[in-house]
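Design request, tokens follow.
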């Protein structure tokens, strides 16, 4: 019996293998990540999901569009929004909660209408938060390590 070489595997099997490698990589990053890095990863995942949704819209792939937008909504709702403490965070936390709620609504409409403009709006709203979060990374890491224990 002839065994096919690894590169002759069906495309779907190679894609599955690549997905597993990616999942292991993400899990490794999560295991050693600081809380600040975890939030940065959520922002990155959100932006990546929007790019995937945009590509799916352009290719006419409704299933991929739905998966990408669904992932973006889950990142907003279960990650970024769920991590807010509205009571302790005051006005800033409430404003972020309202913004995340609005973005989730826009994403739902973008999914229903395959609306790239709505995706672009969501990216424009999140990008400044992502940049601000990234910019405070070194400062928060330095402050945490310089505190007396």
């Amino acid at each position: 019996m002839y065994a096919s070489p690894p590169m002759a595997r069906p495309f779907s099997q190679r894609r599955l293998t690549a997905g597993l490698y990616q999942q292991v990589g993400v899990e490794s990053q999560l295991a050693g990540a600081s809380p600040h890095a975890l939030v940065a990863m959520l922002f990155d995942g959100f932006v990546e999901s929007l790019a995937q949704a945009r590509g799916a819209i352009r290719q006419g792939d409704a299933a991929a569009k739905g998966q990408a937008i669904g992932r973006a909504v889950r990142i907003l709702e279960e990650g970024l929004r769920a991590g807010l403490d509205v009571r302790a965070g005051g006005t800033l936390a409430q404003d972020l909660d309202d913004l995340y709620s609005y973005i989730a609504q826009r994403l739902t409409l973008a999914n229903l209408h395959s609306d790239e403009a709505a995706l672009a709006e969501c990216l424009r709203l999140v990008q400044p938060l992502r940049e601000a979060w990234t910019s405070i990374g070194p400062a928060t890491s330095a402050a945490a390590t310089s505190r007396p224990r």
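Comment from the thread starter after seeing the answer: thanks! Residues 26 and 84 are 23 Å apart (CA to CA).
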